[in-house]
Amino acid sequence: MKVLVVGPGGREHAIIKSLLADPKVSEVHAAPGNAGIAQDVPVHAVNAQDPEAVTELARQLHADLVVVGPEAPLVAGVGDALRAAGFPVFGPSKDAAHIEGSKAFAKEIMSAANVPTARAVATSDMADVREALTEFGAPHVVKDDGLAAGKGVVVTDERDRAEAHARECIEAGGAVVIEEFLDGPEVSLFVITDGERVVPLIPAQDFKRVRDNDQGPNTGGMGAYTPLGWLPEGFTHEVVERVARPVVNELRRRGAPFVGVLYCGLAVTKRGVQVIEFNARFGDPETQSVLAMLESPLGELMLDAAQGRLSEDRALQWKPGASVTVVLAAQNYPGAPRKGDVITGLEQVGTVDETHVIHAGTATNDAGEVVSAGGRVLAVVSHGADLNEARERGYRGMEVISLPGAHYRSDIALAAAEGRITFPTTAEEQA
User: Fold this and answer.
1) Is the separation of the CB atoms in 15 and 291 below 8 Å?
2) Is the separation of the CB atoms in 378 and 358 below 8 Å?
3) Do residues 174 and 379 make contact, with C-beta atoms less than 8 angstroms apart?
4) Under 8 Å between Cβ of 5 and 16
5) Which UniProt keywords apply (predicted)?
6) Is the CB of residue 60 less than 8 Å from the CB of residue 228?
7) Measured between alpha carbons, how far is 310 from 303 in angstroms, rounded to an integer?
């Protein structure tokens, strides 16, 4: 099977590494890829958001499967163009991807499917914004309604900052969603679906804030780990039955079957599991750790989803132990990141047991050196017998990499490794 992976980032690099490990996958190509992906597979300089260009490349390659990685190409209809040309596609249609493209639409779907989620108000009127902020109280949650690469959400106790973010989104020609704050630890669960049947992967947790102890502004994600030993028994089954399956069924009922991976962003609150958001693709950086644990062939799983033949009793195989992913970010990220600096030490990471590098915002300069080309530059992904060993290996791998001004969090998976994850309790439980 020949597979084309569309996208330039860490999520796509992780997918490609897993595809290369599938014995049924004979060839993998990427468009446009990055410096690390180019070391593993042929890359093609194609605009990932151009449906016609991507479809023409798939024709030239005679691709047996096309995997569309990021959200922007999905919302732009790349999957639709490929399907119309007869290619099996892992990735939803433009209509189905709207569940990520519009948070207001996601709320509408959840309401119709009776999925538990925070109360919310979608609006482009500042008077409504102020009323909702008062009704829900602090901490204030303000979300850009459209795509924002994981950085369109502000959670703050400061009323002025909440209003300012809402105003920026509205003045940019968009809308905002004001939500009530969901307490409790957050969980990411990826569900593979063919539009009708669903197969869950293992839950993961990511770290949105830029600095240790969840300080600083939101980012696209500074690290992740899996598995989550602190989750209650039956958690994944509950999410499939109460969240993923009802949403997949509702989208199919509306004539927009969702084919690909549905990312369920969840909070374990005192009212039970609540949905924070949906994404129409794998989350980054959780994908790096989840796929590092997957032993079942990924290409076969994706092709079955693309061709509508998933089996819900399919038992996926997972490595024992744990995986930790630590993201290295460029100077000034999540603001305007510094680019073009040479990255050294990448070859030495492989000398640490069960540890590898996933490239995200990287490129190659005229001298053939790998340089920074984005905010989140790369990730070190490690595996160990438990979280402690995986953490130790991951940070040992990170220490050999050098990039001027770069930064990373030192506490990825630390609270879980030390057994410090707690759940919010109700007043009755406290009594």
Assistant:
1) yes
2) yes
3) no
4) yes
5) ATP-binding, Ligase, Nucleotide-binding, Purine biosynthesis
6) no
7) 9
Class of domain 121-179: alpha beta
Say whether pTM exceeds 0.85.
Answer: yes
Amino acid identity of 152? Answer: G
What residue ranges do the domains of the chain occupy? 2-91, 121-179, 321-417
pLDDT digits (tens, 9 = 90+) for 233-271: 999 999 999 999 999 999 999 999 999 999 999 999 988
What architecture does CATH give domain 2-91? 3-Layer(aba) Sandwich (3.40)
To which residue do tokens 């790096």 refer?
A: 288
Confidence at residue 424, expressed as pLDDT on a 0 to 100 scale: 81
DSSP state letter for 294: B
CATH of 321-417, one of 3.50.30.50, 3.30.70.370, 3.90.600.10, 3.40.50.1100: 3.90.600.10
For 73-141, the DSSP string reads HHHTTHHHHHHHTT--EES--HHHHHHHH-HHHHHHHHHHHT--B--EEEES-HHHHHHHHHHH-SSEE
The pLDDT of 115-141, averaged and rounded, is: 92
* DSSP codes, 187-249: EEEEEEEESS-EEE---BEE--EEEGGGEEEE-S-SEEEE--TTSPTTHHHHHIIIIIHHHHH
Identity at 402, one-letter amino acid code: S
Query: What proportion of the chain, given as a percentage, has pLDDT over 70?
Result: 97
